[in-house]
Design brief:
heterodimer; A: alpha+beta; seven-stranded mixed sheet; 3 helices; 19% helix; B: four-stranded antiparallel sheet; 21 strands; 29% helix; globular; binds FE2/S2 (inorganic) cluster; binds fe (ii) ion
Chain lengths: 170, 445
């Protein structure tokens, strides 16, 4: 199978796990040294060199390692995680996937992947829903023949979140 | 009591305030005050237009030219440090025809230039540039008459900047009253003071600002059920009554309240919130009184809500379910009202400037993982608050009376060393009854 197909399969497969709430299986897609970050975004003036602006290097909505992600998943399994019980109806739309040149690192073969994600969230019986939109900068690493997520930076398009919490992953 | 006459006009508003006035001392509050367009309109005028509202912490704007954009109600203010080092706040509205002159939420600028016709203001508010000034406005025009409009009142307490829309407002010091003693437990914990850990998180919740702050002024009672998931993970203690062991203190006549919680007897928690020992030692000389230090030494969970919508939460925490030692965190809050049943939460993480670097990192993680937009504690709070507000706005639900009767009949603690009226148990609604007394007073004024 070619690299593009492998990466797309990974991203779409991951979206399926997140949308179906199969978080234990999702954790299996992450490396032990996973770094998962969603920085706070601010409205700032245009940078002279162009590109993204207003990405905080200090404050994050989520700044997670393996242990804290496991804690969040374990919390969802307690039966008392009201923010997601009943679970939100989530739909991760993943598009605009761009794949870098694979490279060899001491930890294995790695590849940088950028994608856009649009996350639809619907709760209870309310006809209103919320969207979160973002760009993801991922590092995938091949381990024992399959790709794992080693790093994710989620660059939100929101400076104020339109939803009452981030009780799910992007 | 004909409150409906006092507030006039609308019977709906009058009814709700009358129900509040008659029920408050019995601990009965009409649900309707938590999601009603007329109540909200009156809150805008009677509460938010003349109360001291938190704008920023000075560490957000440490250098000349640093600014942040902040709101009181729907008014945008540029909070900016001038070249002279002085902090000011201006309505972000060009004096010519009303365009925003500030183009970002935060940054550094010596000048603000209006993109509409180009009027340019210095960061002390002075109008210094008007394109084609003479040709367009002639000889009689004086730039000095057209400075940016300063906020009617701006004052600082130990780095906390508050603004007030009313020029007649009492001083911040008078407004805070004895609450400042408790504020100092946090602001004077070190000689160096506090610093923000980056910009605030901001998120919208479909609830009422009063419902949100209730948790931060009282209602430790909700912990055992709302936050049961963290109890299951061993992050919060199993004892259903653990949040009960503490003093609940309010400042009569002001509406402010605080909770000073030591933890269950025999829980073997580290002293002084679990801050590094060196910080505890240094606090001996930074606190204004020995009593501050003695109270702080026994404190593990600490909250303040300043009337109307500023809260601070400072608990001891395990940074995750496996980490061996608890690490405290500190968050500041503004429950920014957007409309009936809708708020924006503005949530900062802070730490002492002179805390050890390893500790700052841990405190930041502790904050992000438990409170704020993704916090495992707070996400369940926001879920619940939104459903309460939805019910409170319903046609039948708005007429239902809520129960605020917890702790009625408990006598104040005569031995509490700090100011205010203290109750020896945290399972009481006394702080809330005090808050709504002040609320009612202003709403009927
Ligand atoms: S509105 Fe600002 S210059 Fe005209
Ligand atoms: Fe809570």
């Amino acid at each position: 199978m070619n690299l593009t197909q492998e990466i797309l399969d990974f991203l779409y497969g991951e979206a399926e796990l997140l949308d179906e709430g199969r978080y234990r299986e999702w954790l299996d897609l992450l490396t032990e040294d996973i770094l998962y970050r969603v920085p706070v975004r601010l409205t700032r003036e245009r940078l002279p060199q162009g590109g993204h602006s207003g990405i905080s290097e200090q404050m994050f909505h989520l700044d997670e390692d393996r242990t804290s992600l496991e804690m969040r998943v374990a919390r969802l399994e307690t039966g008392f995680a009201w923010a997601e019980d009943p679970p939100s109806r989530l739909r991760h739309f993943v598009t605009n996937v761009r794949i870098g040149e694979p490279r060899h690192t001491p930890l294995g073969e790695e590849v940088e992947v950028r994608s856009y994600v649009l996350v639809f969230r619907s709760r209870w019986d309310q006809p209103d829903f919320t969207f979160l939109s973002a760009e993801r900068h991922d590092t995938l690493r091949k381990q024992n023949g399959s790709w794992k997520l080693a790093k994710r930076l989620v660059i939100l398009d929101h400076s104020t979140l339109p939803t009452h919490n981030l009780s799910f992953f992007l | 009591m004909p409150w409906s006459k006092i507030v006039g006009g609308s019977s709906r508003l009058g009814e709700l305030l009358e129900e509040l006035a008659t029920g408050l001392e019995q601990g009965l509050l009409p649900a309707g005050i938590f999601n009603d367009p007329e109540i909200f309109e009156r809150e805008k005028e009677k509460i938010f237009s003349r109360s001291w509202i938190f704008l920023a912490h000075t560490s957000e704007i440490p250098s000349p030219g640093d600014y942040v954009l902040r709101y009181i109600l729907d008014n945008a203010f540029i909070v900016v440090r001038g070249e002279d080092g002085q902090v000011r706040a201006f309505l972000d509205m060009c004096r010519h025809r009303g365009m925003r002159v500030c183009r970002a939420e935060a940054g550094n600028a010596s000048h603000f230039r209006c993109p509409f016709h180009g009027w340019t203001y210095r960061n002390d508010g002075a109008l210094v540039g008007v394109p084609a000034e003479r040709e367009a406005f002639g000889e009689g025009f004086s730039k000095a008459d057209w400075s940016l409009l300063p906020i009617p009142k701006l004052e600082e307490f130990d780095g906390l900047l508050f603004g007030n829309l009313s020029p007649e407002a009492p001083s911040l010091k008078e407004w805070l009253g004895d609450a400042s003693w408790y504020l100092e437990l946090v602001t004077k914990r070190s000689h160096a003071g506090l610093e923000v850990l980056g910009p605030p998180q901001r998120f919208v919740v479909n609830t009422d600002w009063k419902l949100a702050l209730e948790t931060f002024i009282s209602d430790s009672y909700h912990t055992l059920m709302t936050h049961r998931s963290l109890i299951e993970l061993g992050i919060a203690p199993r004892d259903a009554k653990y949040a009960m062991y503490g003093e609940q203190i309010h400042i009569p006549g002001k509406g402010h309240g605080t909770m000073v919680v030591g933890g269950p007897p025999g829980a073997k928690l580290p002293p002084f919130w679990g801050y590094p020992e060196e910080m505890m030692e240094r606090a001996k000389t930074s606190y204004p009184t020995r009593t501050h230090w003695e109270v702080a030494k026994e404190t593990r969970i600490f909250l303040i809500t300043l009337f109307p919508n500023f809260s601070l939460h400072n608990p001891i925490r395990k940074p995750d379910h496996l980490y061996p030692k608890p690490v405290p965190m500190l968050t500041f809050r503004v429950w920014h009202p957007l409309g009936p049943g809708r708020i924006e939460v503005v949530s900062w993480g802070l730490v002492e400037k002179d805390a050890p670097e390893w500790f700052k990192e841990k405190a930041l993680h502790s904050y992000m993982r438990f409170f704020g937009s993704s916090g495992t504690f707070e996400q369940d709070d926001t879920e619940i608050w939104s459903h309460v507000a939805r019910n409170a706005g319903s046609t039948l639900g708005r007429r239902v009376l809520f129960n605020y009767q917890m702790g009625r009949g408990v006598a104040p603690d005569p031995n509490w060393p700090g100011p205010g009226v203290a109750y020896p148990i945290n399972f009481t609604d006394e702080n809330l009854r005090n808050f709504y007394r002040r609320y009612l007073e202003l709403m009927l004024d």
